[in-house]
Structures are given as structure tokens and as C-alpha cells.
Amino acid sequence: MTISPIGNILGAAGLSPLQGTQSATAPTGTEATSGNTFTQALENVQASQDNADTLAKAAATGNLTDIHAYTIAATEASLTTELTVAVRDRAVESFNEIMRMQV
Amino acid sequence: MTSPMFPVFDIAGSALTTHRIWMNAIADNIANVNTVKSMDQPAYQERFIIAQELPSRSGDPVGVGGGVAPVAVELGDAEGRVVYDPQNPLADKNGLVRRPNMDLGDQMTNLILAQRAYQLNLAVVDRARESYQQALNINGR
């Protein structure tokens, strides 16, 4: 009596190798720390604040063509700032919570 | 500046700009409602703003459009309304002059439309801001 050898297990042979997972937070390939993420978020806030400032200057010098361009930019700047502050508050809160943990 | 975070502001902003430009065109039309030209010149031509929808903005996952933009100004009838006005210094030997061929009632209607559309888009901005603000007020505890 002969025993036929076990062939490739179906399915397993068809699996493709694991693709490298992409880092969502660190496009430069550096270590994805929350510090990096915060720096990027702050740069984003800075950009929208700068935009609002530029338009405010244009309004003051009479070079603003669209009134709503300034008010919308100011709204965006205030919203992004509020969002960053909210994220910071939550992060600090989590940190404090962990620091209070009994060991 | 386009912000991927709040596309609704960019979209509504584009509509605000478009309707402001439409109001400019209507203002020009109304300003020239009494502009008289001699017969050898074209009459004042009514200004029409051609608006076109914008393609999706970057970071838009489903393909919502990107708002609206004015792309061109089309001119109306150059023939004008030929009026008999022999006292006019611009009149030719038959006493004819060209007046713009537009209806002031149409202009006023368009002005109301443009103003209401502008207000509508401002309302969109305001509602979006309100919604985002409410999202910020979500408290985990």
C-alpha cells in the first residue's frame, strides 16, 4: 500500500506575501511619534492663521476683493486652532490619567 | 488657500465669489441702462456671466464637486434698440440712435437672485461652522 504525499495545502499557496504597511503619520519614514503628528497639526494651524493674517492685511490696505474670503479664512483658522486645543486637552488628560495609575 | 479639512468652506466660498461677480455684471448692466450710442457704433451689450462647476477637490473620496467658478462673460445684443431721437447729438441723419437692448425688470430679478444665492451660501458656511463647533464640543466624559 502506498501513501500519496500531501500536496500544497489549498489556499495557503495562493496567499500573497504581506505588503509593507504604510505609515499614515510619518511620510518621511521617521518614527511615527505623536510628537511628529502634533508638529504637523501645528504647522497646519500656523498655515491657516497666516492665510487669515494675509487677508486681514489685504482688507486693511483696501486690496481685498472678496469680503467672504477673509471671514471664511478667519473661521477656518479659529476652527483649526480650537481643534488643536481640543486634541491637546484630550492628550494631556490621557497622560494625567495614566500618571495617576497606582503601581 | 484650499484646506482639505473644511472643503465646504472652499465650495461655498467659490459660490460666494461667483455670485459677487454676477452682482458686478448686473451693476454694470444697470449702470449702462441709459447709455446711448450712435448708429455706427455697437450698442451697450448686456453682460452675462458664464458659470461652470468645478471638479472635485483633492482629498475628496466620493467625487463631490468642488463648487462653481465664473469662466467667461458673454455679451448680449449689439444691435440694441434703435430709437428715433433727433434731438440727441449722437443721432444720425435719420435721427436714429442705439439704446441698450435689455430689460430693467430682468436686471432687478437677477439682482435679487444673485443676492439670495449669496445669502444662501453664507448660510451654508454658517451651518458648517456650527456643525464643526458642535463636533468639537463632544466630550468623552
What would you note in describing this structure?
The complex is a heterodimer of chains A (103) and B (141). Chain A is mainly alpha-helical and 103 residues long. Chain A has a domain at 34-99. Chain A has helices at residues 34-60, 67-99. In chain A, helix 1 runs antiparallel to helix 2. The N and C termini of chain A lie far apart (65 Å). Mean pLDDT of chain A is 78; it is low at 23-27. Chain B is an alpha+beta fold and 141 residues long. Chain B has one domain (7-136). In chain B, helix 1 (7-31) packs antiparallel against helix 2 (104-136). The A-B interface holds A 44, 47-48, 51, 66, 68-69, 72-73, 75-76, 79-80, 82-83, 86, 90 and B 1, 3, 5-6, 9, 12-13, 16-17, 20, 122, 125, 129, 132-133, 136, 140.
Describe how the helices and strands are arranged.
The complex is a heterodimer of chains A (about 100) and B (about 140).
Chain A: H1 34-60, H2 67-99
Chain B: H1 7-31, E1 47-53, E2 68-75, E3 81-84, E4 96-99, H2 104-136
Helix pairs in contact in B: 1-2
Tell me the major beta sheet of chain B: 2 strands, antiparallel
- Give the tally of β-strands of chain B: 4
| Backbone CA Rg of chain B | 22 Å
Average pLDDT of chain B, rounded to a whole number, is: 90
What is the 3D form of chain A? Answer: elongated
The portion of residues forming beta strands of chain B comes to 15-25%
Poorly predicted spans of chain B: none
Helix count from the secondary structure assignment of chain B:
2
**Beginning-to-end CA distance, first to last residue of chain A:** 65 Å
| Tally of domains of chain B | 1
SSE string of chain A, helices as H and strands as E = HH
Helix content of chain A: 55-70%
Low-confidence parts of chain A lasting 5 or more residues at pLDDT below 50?
23-27
Helical percent range of chain B? 40-55%
Radius of gyration of chain A: 26 Å
Number of strands of chain A: 0
Number of helices of chain A: 2
Which pair of chains forms the biggest interface, and how many residues does each contribute?
A: A-B, 17 and 17 residues
Multimerization status: heterodimer
